[in-house]
Design brief:
By secondary structure, the chain is of the alpha/beta class. The protein has two domains: about 5-145, Rossmann fold (3-Layer(aba) Sandwich); about 160-320, Rossmann fold. Helix content is about 45%, strand content about 15%. The chain contains 15 helices and eleven strands. It has helices spanning about 20-35, 50-55, 65, 80-90, 105-110, 125-130, 135-145, 160-175, 200-210, 220-225, 230-235, 245-255, 265-275, 285-290, 310-320, and strands spanning about 10-15, 40-45, 60-65, 90-95, 115-120, 180-185, 215-220, 240-245, 260-265, 275-280, 295-300. The strands form two sheets. A six-stranded parallel beta sheet has the order 8-7-6-9-10-11, sandwiched between helices. Helix 14 links the parallel strand 10 (about 275-280) and strand 11 (about 295-300). The radius of gyration is 21 Å and the shape is elongated.
Length: about 325
């Protein structure tokens, strides 16, 4: 298919974690606007695709296992008819399951009647060297396939005021009281080296609380497994703790907050995508390549060992205050 005007259905195949999936949502919005507003379905490993569909950001969402996409990795396994029928019903498939020369791509091209575009989700050497954001790399790959998208893929308002109010109601109900300004602090990440010391976070929480913010900790299975129950009990001494048992529920809580503070982690990308006041603390990863995208997202570095920790805390609190709230 060469004429974007004829494009009606697009499938995105994505096996990445939450953060990569959210960054892909930025690209999907650009695809939607540049390709004549087709119906976009996302088949993903992360449940955030279902959350995005529920809020009208996708036409449909499936899990990779639900459609049987995991069988694409097994070249000697015959694909079920329901999968081949589904794939052949689509005008275009954008696969993030591997690059153009990957075996999965070859199998998709053999099965599908529509166009298959393969995007390698990993940063290229030039992307890392030049400090180019990963979404710019993906957009450039689409352009080289003859299907350019707008390079202006920063976040704009993605949810209605009604949806934000509903998410706010959910968060307030969880906290048990109405409050003027709520900040969520997520002190974890998928990698331990991405996490700055908990003592630094506790000082930030104390300072924001003194500045009349209502603080709440958000922790997930990674933190519980890594640090054990004493970790949560320690956090409870400074602010209430919410457990991220379901990604979709946690996403609604984040949407209802006034500010979100965390590391280079998946939910940080979502907060930025939603336009929440977001402070992302980066350590070993390069924010030029991986920073969350959004108009109210600001980047900060880990505390420096040769500087007083209070200076770092003051800088983070000032950064939160400098970001304009959602109107």
């Amino acid at each position: 298919m060469t004429k974007t005007a004829q494009l009606k259905t697009v499938l995105i195949l994505h096996a990445g974690a939450l953060g990569d999936c959210v960054l892909t949502l930025h690209l999907i919005r650009a695809m939607y606007e540049s390709w004549g507003r087709p119906a976009v379905t996302m088949a993903a490993r992360s449940p955030i695709a279902r959350w995005a569909c529920r809020h009208g950001l996708l036409a449909d969402a499936r899990s990779l296992d639900e459609i049987g996409a995991h069988l694409l990795y097994q070249p000697d396994t015959e694909l079920p008819e329901r999968l081949t029928r589904f794939l052949r019903s689509l005008d275009r498939i954008v696969s993030f399951l591997g690059g153009p020369d990957d075996p999965v791509t070859g199998r998709l091209q053999t099965v599908c009647t529509g166009e298959v575009i393969a995007i390698d989700p990993r940063p290229a050497e030039s992307t890392t060297r030049d400090g180019r954001h990963i979404t710019r790399q993906w957009a450039a790959d689409l352009g080289r396939c003859g299907h350019p998208v707008s390079t202006d893929i920063e976040n704009r308002a993605v949810l209605t005021d009604h949806e934000r109010r509903a998410c706010r109601t959910s968060l307030v109900a969880r906290l048990g009281a109405e409050t003027a300004r709520v900040a969520i602090c997520h002190p974890g990440s998928g990698g331990l080296d991405k996490c700055c010391p908990i003592e630094a976070w506790e000082r930030v929480v104390a300072k924001l609380t003194a500045n009349r913010w209502t603080l709440v900790w958000l922790i997930g299975p990674d933190e519980v497994e890594r640090f054990g129950p004493n970790y949560a009990r320690r956090l409870e001494r400074s602010a209430p703790v919410m457990y991220e048992e379901l990604v979709e529920q946690a996403a609604d809580w984040v949407c209802g907050a006034d500010a979100y503070l965390s590391h280079d982690a998946g939910m940080t990308h979502l907060a930025a995508y939603l336009g929440i006041r977001t402070v992302a603390i980066f350590g070993p990863t390069d924010p030029r390549v991986w920073q969350p995208l959004g108009p109210r997202c600001r980047i900060a570095a880990f505390p420096e060992s040769d500087r007083p920790i209070d200076d770092w805390v003051d800088s983070i609190v000032s950064l939160v205050g400098s970001i304009p709230p959602v109107s």
